[in-house]
Amino acid sequence: MKKITVIIIIAILVIGFGWLVLYGLRYSRGVPTVVEEKARPVLEIPFIEEKIDLAKGISPQIWEKLPAGEVELVYQVTVLPWPQKGLISPIAVKAFHNKKDIYFYISWPDNTQDYIHTTNKFSDACAIMFPLGKKIEAKPSTLLMGFLGKANIWHWKASIDREFWLKDFPEDKVYVDFYYPFEKEETLAVSKDIPQSAVRDLLAIRVGTITPKEKQQVQGKGVWNSGVWEIVFRRSLNPADVELDAIFPLGKKQYCAFAIWNGSKGDRGGRKSISDWVELRIK
Length: 283
Hints:
nine-stranded mixed beta sheet, 14 strands
């Protein structure tokens, strides 16, 4: 009887030891954790028989009719300092089309209206990024604009908005005048880029390649009121060039991502709040 008991005990110990060895080999690099994947935000883009003349405003009465989608943002982790003190999150987004043009609306709280871009002063800004290419499902990372894939970026900036719509250009403090000394006529002009829009229509194919497209297809306007920014983008529903412009196929999948720059907190370049991809459903 004692012999059988000893054998049973030895068998249990061997089995237990074998199980521990197998467990250790399987999880030698740590015990896996189950991470619940968040549902991807979805932005409905309905058809509405409305048209917005941005020269007259952003038409708040139209946007009030549309439900707002809420998109969470996180601060980038590519540029110091970390973490950012003035993270912008969440933002409210809306969109619609009238079969001719497509409109996007972005709104977020900001206690300061930063529209001057100069030494140690930075402008508020926002952007929408769309993946390009035949395989839209193979979306590039939103961490760096255009990282690992081609992307079309619509970049609105408060400083450019003020120049374009209000013709309010910052004073040039570098030159005494606009003529070379002793010249009767201007032969060496001090050039200034006159914006074609408050939104820069950009293309990125990899890190460090963000460049304005030759033809700027996107218009936009921003309004700051009582601590809230409201920005409206407008572009033709049909792309001028399917290789360079974001496409919005009816009934098919498209994606976009958002970015916000808070000028008063030192945001510029890579310092920004960013979202993950948002699925667009164009009806």
